[in-house]
Each structure stands twice: as structure tokens, then as C-alpha cells.
Automatic annotation (TrEMBL):
<keyword id="KW-1003">Cell membrane</keyword>
<feature type="region of interest" description="Disordered">
    <location>
        <begin position="272"/>
        <end position="292"/>
    </location>
</feature>
<feature type="domain" description="Type II secretion system protein GspF">
    <location>
        <begin position="109"/>
        <end position="227"/>
    </location>
</feature>
<keyword id="KW-1133">Transmembrane helix</keyword>
<keyword id="KW-0175">Coiled coil</keyword>
<keyword id="KW-0472">Membrane</keyword>
<keyword id="KW-0812">Transmembrane</keyword>
<feature type="coiled-coil region">
    <location>
        <begin position="185"/>
        <end position="212"/>
    </location>
</feature>
<feature type="transmembrane region" description="Helical">
    <location>
        <begin position="60"/>
        <end position="82"/>
    </location>
</feature>
<feature type="transmembrane region" description="Helical">
    <location>
        <begin position="213"/>
        <end position="233"/>
    </location>
</feature>
<dbReference type="InterPro" id="IPR018076">
    <property type="entry name" value="T2SS_GspF_dom"/>
</dbReference>
<dbReference type="Pfam" id="PF00482">
    <property type="entry name" value="T2SSF"/>
</dbReference>
<protein>
    <recommendedName>
        <fullName>Type II secretion system protein GspF domain-containing protein</fullName>
    </recommendedName>
</protein>
<feature type="transmembrane region" description="Helical">
    <location>
        <begin position="239"/>
        <end position="261"/>
    </location>
</feature>
<dbReference type="GO" id="GO:0005886">
    <property type="term" value="C:plasma membrane"/>
</dbReference>
């Protein structure tokens, strides 16, 4: 590592870089090579996109320790479940980003209207942000005199962007009745912000319950580690004896039922629906997009 800094040719390489615009201060035989860094970055991106496949090495390690194929088979079964859970988490994060983008949109358009710009120009000049490529249809409708409320409702069908129903309703009222669009957008932004703050406060209050559920779910793993440390060989008993297999199946069923029941209790306390139902359960906006 010190050789490229002190070896021969260092001053020549620096002169080429500074005065001739060519050459490189990195020697030809540098380590690690460029292809290694590129493949490492690709592998990291692939691992982040396929995090559910981490079940395989974990199951393989447990299978080697217990000398049984059952943990590996369980890991294969767990892959689609983990993939579904990760997809739900990813959809939730994207929905939260879209909700924040809708709030910023309302504030930006209201500010442009207060500054004296026309509604179509103000809406077309707002960047899409996290609202996706569907926002191009809204900008085109605002720029060329199309049906802006209908385009807004089309984008509002995505999770997290339901607040655009309120924007569409305000736009329709402002165009048909001449009401103030800026004040309506500010009310929509205020309702969405209040709902988001309420949800964040409720999540912080339920953080203790979620942590308790996670600790209870990890207790069997801690028990197995303690038994292995004491020399009781719990994996051998669970995976190679009939009584152990029965206890393993029964314990797994009870563990899954407990996690599902605890999650249901937390979701009920948080006011979250069992399935994402679009606008249902959103206290800030009604189904027609009117601000409550």
C-alpha cells in the first residue's frame, strides 16, 4: 500500500494529471482491482434486493450443527413468507414517502398560488418527487388544459397518495365555483400532517409492546443457546428423537400463533386495518376527498 505513494514515477503521474489532463495517480497494478469493486457493489445490490435468501445460510448452519435436513427445509419454506413480509415493509415505506410528497405538493402549489401564479402553471411546475411516473399525466393535464381532477384521482389510487383525492376535490370546487384553491390545499396539507403526526405518536407509544413481542419470540432461540452451552445438546434431542420432533412442531405452532396474536393486538391498538383498504381508516380525508 505504501509503494504507490513512495515508489518511482509518482511525480510523473502527478504531473500528467495536473498539466496534461491525462494519466492517473493510481498504478496499473493497484489492489483491489477495479473489477473486484464493481462485482462487490453488484453483489451488495443483489443481496439487498434478495434479503429473504439469507434464510438459506441460517438454515444451513443450523442443519450442520444439528446434523439434520429439517432446518434447511424449514428455511426453504420460510423464504416466501419472509419475502412477503419484506414486500409489505417496502410498500409501507413507499406509501409513507408518497404521503410526504403529497403534503409537500400541497404546500408548494399553495405557495405558488399565493405568489400570483395560475393554478395550471403552479401544478405543472411542481416536481413529481416520490409520486412516480404517473405524475407526468397530471402535469400534462395542468399544462394543456386537460381533466386535472381525473388525473389526480388516477395517481391517488397508489398506496400513500390518497390525499390527492382531496387535492382533486379542491381543484374541482375551485374551477367550478371559484373558491380559493390555495386555502383548500393548505387545509388538505394540514389534515395529512396531523394524521401523520398522530400515527407517529401512536407508533412511539406502541414501541414498547413491539419490543416485548420480539423478545418473547427470541426466547426459544436463547433457550437453545443456553442448552448448548450447558452441554445438553438440545438440537440433537429436537431433531433426532420422536419426543423432540413433537415438541418442536408443537412449539413452532404455538410460537407462530403467539406472534400472530401479538401482531393482531398491536395492529388493533394502532388502528391499522387487516388489509390495506385505500382510503379507509384515514381520519384526515373522507372517501370523496373532502377535508374533515
Amino acid at each position: 500500500m505504501a509503494w504507490p505513494l513512495t515508489g518511482p514515477g509518482r511525480e510523473l503521474r502527478r504531473a500528467r494529471l495536473l498539466f496534461a489532463g491525462g494519466g492517473s495517480t493510481t498504478p496499473a497494478g493497484s489492489w483491489p482491482p477495479a473489477w473486484a469493486g464493481e462485482w462487490g457493489a453488484r453483489l451488495g445490490r443483489w443481496a439487498r434486493a434478495r434479503r429473504e435468501l439469507m434464510c438459506l445460510p441460517v438454515g444451513g448452519a443450523v442443519a450442520l450443527l444439528g446434523a439434520s435436513l429439517l432446518p434447511l427445509l424449514a428455511a426453504l419454506v420460510a423464504i416466501p413468507l419472509v419475502r412477503k413480509w419484506l414486500a409489505a415493509r417496502r410498500e409501507q415505506r413507499e406509501g409513507e414517502r408518497r404521503e410526504a410528497a403529497v403534503i409537500e405538493l400541497c404546500g408548494a402549489v399553495a405557495g405558488e398560488l399565493r405568489a400570483g401564479r395560475q393554478p395550471g402553471q403552479a401544478l405543472a411546475g411542481v416536481p413529481a418527487g416520490d409520486l412516480g411516473p404517473q405524475w407526468a399525466a397530471v402535469a400534462a393535464a395542468a399544462r394543456f388544459g386537460g381533466d386535472v381532477p381525473e388525473a389526480l384521482r388516477a395517481v391517488a389510487g397508489r398506496p400513500g397518495a390518497e390525499g390527492l383525492h382531496g387535492v382533486a376535490a379542491c381543484w374541482r370546487v375551485a374551477v367550478d365555483g371559484g373558491a380559493g384553491l390555495a386555502s383548500g390545499l393548505e387545509r388538505v396539507a394540514a389534515a395529512l400532517s396531523a394524521e401523520r403526526d398522530q400515527r407517529e405518536e401512536l407508533r412511539s407509544q406502541l414501541a414498547g409492546a413491539r419490543s416485548t413481542a420480539v423478545m418473547l419470540a427470541l426466547l426459544p432461540v436463547l433457550a437453545l443457546l443456553m442448552g448448548s452451552a450447558l452441554g445438553a445438546a438440545p438440537l440433537k434431542v429436537l431433531l433426532h428423537t420422536p419426543a423432540g420432533l413433537g415438541c418442536l412442531v408443537l412449539g413452532g405452532l404455538l410460537e407462530g400463533a403467539g406472534i400472530a396474536w401479538t401482531g393482531r393486538i398491536v395492529r388493533t391498538a394502532a388502528g391499522e386495518p387487516e388489509g390495506r383498504g385505500g382510503e379507509c381508516g384515514r381520519p384526515g380525508l373522507s372517501a370523496e376527498g373532502k377535508v374533515s
